[in-house]
């Protein structure tokens, strides 16, 4: 066995066997394998690397929808509209239609309702969203819709509500409606503001 050349791993550059064994002969000394074997338990470092890899993978899974959205935006065709220089609306905001929507929504939702301080904030949000959606269904082009709803307990008191806005009186307008029953007082208003 003396005089035979040792085997060298090209990938790692370490000697795997001290000598090349002849046929049917076992080598006298073996160096440790560079590659992990299946029967050995993984070390702490290997399990830590596995944890890092799974974290990286889960982070990539979370990021993929965002990356795909960015790709869609970057590859999608962007449409650039030229300015219309239109300073007045094709159809002006109708305060009568908006007031009818206010009356329908508020009467329908608040009829027979008793005041509850904990439920009132979510009720106000719901009323505002429903009124805004119904007014937007009228398709007023280039109008910003602002909805304001105030609900209070009805104990015989008086409420005075005022508002001030900077707008073009020729195109911008508002509608308001007040409702009261034995337990609730409600004041709702919708503002239609034209944006050029």
Rg, Cα atoms, Å: 38 Å
What best-fitting shape do the alpha-carbon axes yield? flat
SS element count, helices? 3
For the largest beta-sheet, the strand count, sense and barrel status come to: 3 strands, antiparallel
Instruction: Give the structural class.
Output: alpha+beta
**What name goes with the CATH superfamily of the largest domain?**
Tctex-1
Q: In the CATH hierarchy, what is the class of the largest domain?
A: Alpha Beta
Query: What is the share of helical residues?
Result: 25-40%
Poorly predicted ranges: 7-18
State the domain count.
3
- Tell me the CATH architecture of the largest domain: 2-Layer Sandwich
Mean pLDDT: 77
Remind me, CATH topology of the largest domain? Ribosomal protein S3 C-terminal domain
| Topology pattern, helix = H, strand = E | EEHHHEEE
- Strand content range: 15-25%
Strand order of the largest sheet: 3-5-4
Annotation, overall tally of beta strands:
5
Distance between the termini: 95 Å
